[in-house]
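INFO worker-7 received task bundle
INFO bundle size: 2
INFO processing item 0
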Amino acid sequence: MSIPSMTPPVPVTERLDGFLVRHRRRVLGGLLFLAVFLRAMVGMELAGGPLLHIHEQNTASDNYFFAGWAQHLADGDWLQREPLHPMTAWMRRVAGQVMRAHPTYPVELGLAKDTAYDPKTMAVSLWDRWLGGPTYFQEPLYPYLVALTRVVFGPDGAFVFAWQLALGVLGLFLVYRLGRVLFSETVGVVGAVLGLLYAPLVVHEFVLLRDSLIVLFTLALLAALVAALERGGWRWTLFGALSGLAVLVKVPFVIFLFLALAGAVASRRCRAGDVGRVFAGLAVALLPAVARNALVGVPWLKFNGSGTSMLAYYHMADSRPYQFSIGPGYADILFKTDGRFLPALREAIQTHASLWGFIRLSLAKVLYSLHGSEVPNNVDVALFRQAAGTVRAMPLPFWALGVLGAVGTVATRARWRQLWPLYVGVVAALPTLVLASFISRYRLPLAAALLPLAGAGFVALLRWGEARRWRALGLTAVLAVPYVAWASRPLLDFGADSPAAYYQGQGTMALRAGWPDFAELNFRESLRWEPGRAQAHLGLGDSLLQQGLVEDALPELRVAADGMTSGEPLLLLGRALLATGKRDEGLAALREAVAREPAGSTIRQQSEQLLSLPGGP
């Protein structure tokens, strides 16, 4: 009797890949629809709130400067012939330190006839010099795109957000494409899904900053490089042109360009003629900016004036790996070096006790770039989570991308000759973090480059599980657990003793600036970290009162009154109770405020004044 042949079962991952290939259009259409739908949901939740207006109200933010820069261009000065840069409080403080320590410095530079100059005016002139005069403050492509949007559609930032959101959807398609071409259909789909679940990618599409554009160019350059390596010809010219545009978004993209060319030449997949095509495309893309620089009399290839003098403060002995801070010695560095980049960097390094101190700081930046926290700077992912439930529903932390990306790299190491472009994308994202500091928006290109590798890692874990490769899974867990334990801990000092204190301080500043709805988000985030923080309850109650939400403010003020010894929460509580018709409770709260406050205090005087009004308050 013959025994029937037994065919081995097809692995689940292969069956899944076959299904996704057969239904490619439907699956891809569903992914793109979901990407659009999620962005529409976030937009509706944010509409009417403060986060879409940071570029209008927060005058100390980069967002505000980009809006002003774009408006300046749109008003007609397309060549930007005069110096144009922000003038924030810390910049005025640094210039003031220089003038107080060296009052003759502006005279020696020829900026003033004598020391009778006006300090406020001279502070602007000094920064004009340190930032290179009419040199672009930062790379120009993004503000020009915003300016063109304003000319065509008007000044509403929503029009900019619209094309940023569209480019975000395109970026997810490029993630899918990279995963599909370099790995498999399943990896492409998983990579795109991971991109949908990583909230910072969407959040940064709703702010007037160039970071979403940087993400797109990271993915576009990877896709163009892979296509050029596979098919050559005009695709090298396209890669060069995209590289030139990317440099006009952020100069460190030049690192990506040269690493990519080095890898292509070393792998013998790029001939001399191809290199020529790359540089031809690069030259064409850079030509308008080079011509502008020549016309206004600044160095032809200098597209960023801020990095020349401002990067020094990221490398001083008192600099922090993940915190923007201006040390007391920075003003002296500007004075000694006149804002020149290499001398300023050398002076910053010399503030360390030894060269090892500088190296340790740089290594710490790389290490913290793998941390799970999203460190705020001009945009705060945590506040978007407060304002939009859809953002809260995007659960993927960065450390998950790190784990999956590492697994994908190890699992596919035998194919490194085909996958090295992804490694270039990851490595090229690190210099910005080392040159500056670890903050969420600087890490976005790293997250984007990791997505295809993370998709490969997820699929590899599925295969190991199906094949019962317990040793591989166990080793992965052993290595991942300590990393996750470290990466999931909150970073405790954003310039305060705790995250709760940081957000409370941000809320207080927003209240003082007359921005109560933004203050509300900050106080709620403070209370998320520390629910019993009475001062944050007081700030939240005050911000709600200023928005006319009296009933919502009452419970917050009661908690603050119970947790504080001052009469301030009772004064606000008394006013709120009286406004809602609860006269007896309101009077009792005001009397308690008087009892808590010393004679002569403002709070006591205001409480007594309310109590003494004719006929009652």
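INFO item 0 finished
INFO processing item 1
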Amino acid sequence: MIRQGRTVLGIELGSTRIKAVLVGEDHSPVASGDYVWENRLENGYWTYSLKDIWQGLRASYSALAKNVMEKYGEELHRAGAIGFSAMMHGYMAFDASGELLVPFRTWRNSTTGPAARSLTDLFEYNIPERWSIAHLYQAILNGEDHVKDIDYITTLAGYIHWKLTGEKVIGIGDAAGIFPINSEKKTYNGAMAEKFNALVADRHYPWKLEDILPRVLISGENAGYLSKEGAALLDESGKLEAGIPLCPPEGDAGTGMAATNSVAVRTGNVSAGTSVFAMVVLEKPLKKVHPEIDMVTTPDGSPVAMVHANNCTSDLNAWVGLFKEFAEGFGIDVDMNRLYGMLYNKAMEGDCDCGGLISYGYLSGENITGIENGRPMFMRSPKSLFSLSNFMRTHLYSALGALKIGMDILIKEEQVAIDSILGHGGLFKTKGVGQQILADAINTPVSVMETAGEGGPWGMALLASYMLYKEDGESLEHYLSEKVFGSDRGTSLAPDPEGVRGFETFIRHYKEGLGAEAAAAAALMDLED
């Protein structure tokens, strides 16, 4: 039996999976459910339809409720609090009647280069192509007719929260992927908003920027209550009760920080899955603007330097799938966990510089390296040492290649101090492999906690728990450190000197080969046209 009114529900919509986690009063998961989905490239944009979103959300909740019934013999009808999170950035624009004006444009799109560069110059602040403001301004530059009808712009998490509560609000971490944040005032940067309004004044739109963005909240604040209509949207069985409080909706960056206890100054975490991003909580501002570095915030508003690469494990997963197909051709029934474990551990037998092999796992464009279109490519010379171990090591290195370029800027150029880095996400599921390769890539010890596999939805549940259970004046940092993680600092691996040197050699070749990658991508585009 579980005390449903004392449990907390966290749901996160990731790039390939929607997962719901129910946690108990001790912050441990008591039930879960998930749903696998995938984005589509339609009319030049990576997107999920509204039908996809709600079908997936309901299915993940239904799987959770089924899990509760199987484990505890009771129907799920209530929680003490709920929190929703999702992949950050992107563009969801609605008119005054609440209708979506154009299909959801996700973070994966690299179609806003001119807008991002122009706004970066205007604000003297890096505006990545993924950010909502870049999507908005690019739509303006494109002369898209829908812009004049905009009444509200939000992220995926903000959209779901709005539909379930009626509240047009957003957590500050997710807001930081919409528009630059003033960390002192805990809201959007007003001076930059004024600059943007002046920039588009000659267009005579009926809105000002501040009027169409969600209101910013910080962790611990109440963000509304589940409405009767919202409960019906989430739970088609009709058993879920209305009136449950919700915490501010967050992005997957914020939930990753919560799930790894990385909200304190000089701490950081790396989330590695379909995309990969590193976040380091800063003790002082960066010395200059870097297009490879985003400035975001923790869920309670502290400034964070973020390195985000669009591509990580997708191409690697495709190769593993090919090996599965090969095995099945011999009538072998392959367990995917064993297959991943074997191939990942095989990689550790390879040469530390990958034997001269190079891979670019770009299923989509990559902002850090200036590649506009996704064209995965594997290269070798006649002199390369082509073996299974080197092949797998190459793809694991490549999964972190763009990330390393950004992290080198933070560590080597900006001399950012980092006391601890925690890894979480699919890359770290095989014990010791992804963890060691990341440690070698950034020449910094990397820890992985036992709870790292719980990931973003668990981190979102922790943020909802903080809202529900925090003491007066208690900070998020204190709540996580003292009440959730305690003495758990994870299992740490130090960088291996030979591995560090090998990765440095690999990344030098990786950078040198980017011209060939760009040329190949352009040639393939011509063939498709």
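INFO item 1 finished
INFO post-check item 1: The radius of gyration is 22 Å.
INFO post-check item 1: The longest helix spans residues 50-72.
INFO worker-7 idle
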